Structures
1.
Amino acid sequence: MTHINIASLEVGQEIGSHTFHFTRDSLVRYAGASGDFNPIHYRDDFAKSVGLDGVLAHGMLTMGAAVQLAVNWVGDAGKVIDYGVRFTKPVFVDANTGADVLVIGKVGAIDLENNTVRIDLSASSAELAVLGKAQAVIKL
Amino acid sequence: MVNPNVQGKKYPETAPYLVGREKVREFANAVFSTNPINHDLFAAQAAGYPDLVAPPTFAVLIQERSLPAVLSDPEADIDFSRVVHGDQRFIHTRPIVAWDELTSILEVASVKSLGAHSMITFNTEIFDRNKNLVCTAISTLVVRGE
């Protein structure tokens, strides 16, 4: 059971928004936690040598952070039963200023029979969409 | 180009991965989670879980353990230096919790070409000690053409 009453929800309703601030520290922390030590996520010289404009965030960090909006809305990380995204643009993380990722969540679909709600997440950095078709199905 | 003949190929089950409480906390911190059930044992138990609940994308750790077998498979012929993560999905039967011991089996679901690029999709099924399915992780890698 959650505090959310499915009958009171409407498709298109916004559930909230949050700006995540990524720094190089965030990337190193995610690298350690996930085991993804690809140097494009912490070394400018390496990123440039493979033709990138600079160090970029792990797509999985953006994916993992974005869903927190839906987790906080329902209040229980275990209620996210299906979550998928497409990685559309990299999030470049400046060594000094970092990067902001704005996440907005909306109710995308309501399934009364299964008591699930699909939350559609939009995530953008520097005004560009960095995730596409980011959808989290929540079991209420 | 990725060899389309590996479509349907299954790779051997990975060695068990024991989900540690501190790993759950470390991962939760890394993805900016403030949800108490990712951090606080009493909160997780009060919510009805046996132990700390892992964030929804934690299964990527298990998926990553299944990838080297296919990436190093000469038959698949994947040039990892040209790989970009295209999309990712996790379908959970139940959430991963601390002290789960997880194994996984990766299957190549599809290989497609898009101009000079190849797209390879993996389905990684993740099982608990009792061999019950916990999560299916679906990942598409884009291998950029020369």
2.
Amino acid sequence: MTLRKQHSARITGVADTAMGELPGSTAMGLHAEAANAALTDAGLKASDIDGVLCGYSMTVPHLMLSSVFCEYYGISPTFNTAIQAGGATACIMLANAVALVESGACRHVLCVTGDNRLTGMSRDGAVAALATVGHPEFEQPYGMSVPASYALVAQAYLHRYGISRDELSAISVAARAHAALHPKATKRDPLTLEEVSDSRVIASPLRLLDCCLISDGGAAVIVSAADAARDTRKPVRVLGSGQGHTHEHIMAAPSLTEFGCKTSSTMAFAQAGVTAADIDVAEIYDSFTITLLVELESIGFFNKGEAGKAALAGDLSLGGRLPTNTHGGLMSYGHSGAAGGAFHIVEAAHQLRGEADARQVDGAELAFVHGDGGILSAHCSLVLGQE
Amino acid sequence: MDLPIPTPNADSRPYWDAAQQGRLVLQHCTACGAAQAVPRSWCGKCQSPDLVWLDSGRRGTVASFSIVHRGPTKAFRDHLPYVLALVDVTEGVRLMLNVIGDDRLETRIGDKVEIVFEPRGADAFKMPQAQRNDA
């Protein structure tokens, strides 16, 4: 692998909106709310932003979402575009923003996401819309859905590694315990292994509590050039980034147990000059229990077949070997599409700044963030560090 | 409610036309020899345009499966539970199919299957599907 120059960009502002069921919210309103809050967080004003990256919204499907946002919000950036990579969108937006500020094209790039997919459309409507990541001729006519596709990965994983139901359930339970410490998390009630294991089957072997939430919510991240970051409140360093893309449709995945997160994380670690063992806190895309399990192992945090045992032993919890998804993740904090992946970035920044309150990981200096789009199709990894 | 039928395009029409005649055909690249599942104008391994359609022996193995209890649309919710599977066809491609037949809920990874054709809708559009071998 070619050694890439170290990044110099900084994350200078992060924010997310309220989470969950937000009647009266709109996709653009959530974008604007998140943008305002991220600017306040950074100590910047809207006129400082010269680059804007938007993601996508299911309630506002649009060819030019970024133009729609800038008009709504009232800014005229000199770089403006939308990025669509499913759950990897937020991390890929951030990687693009880093390239923009490091090339000199922009000083401050606003990456902004939001969707009111819970109250703005029915839950059935959201499930149907998400299933369109399936191939229109060769997957969708067979009743493919996103949970059923991840279930195919889960079944192959269980067949190969023979892990127990509790090992899978432990992923949900660990996330819920973190969510209980976050005042904005959607699901904060205590959760037991039995409740996960006894929840109704969605697509075997995945059950309801193996699955992420569908939420209204928004999030924004501001990325600034190194010199432009000097007068912001509390910047965080971007140390490494990487992507891996092996397929879109699960039927075309080269493997059911090894995914592009291996390539993306290897690139990000190499650029940052660190290894998985150096990471203090991980915020990793967790659309389903199986998603986090295969990513943790593919990335190299745990040996194959071992991440579930680790979760059961408390390794992913606060005080454990690798506190993971300290905000509660997509299963307990919330999932609003492109914003879902951005919540992981927001939490990583809070951890590195020591602003994570009751869920603060002691001495968190290095964070790993990962986004996964489609059915483990598009991957983007980030290594972030304290200033 | 009827299950959906695919809308063929210029790349895929030979696949679906053959299915209507009870044949499973797959694209093979004459340049590199690779077979591919989703039909294309180009080989997905070597980007050659030299592709031929060959009849498949319609045999395969279940690479993975899920028994689905929550369908993505109304039509599929009328047919729960159904079995979604990835089937490795002998010629070297992986298809997504439903395992059908009375014993479908017994499906296991590694099961040998035959590709059969299931009629759908008023015009009995034939969909390739998988059926577990008795033997």
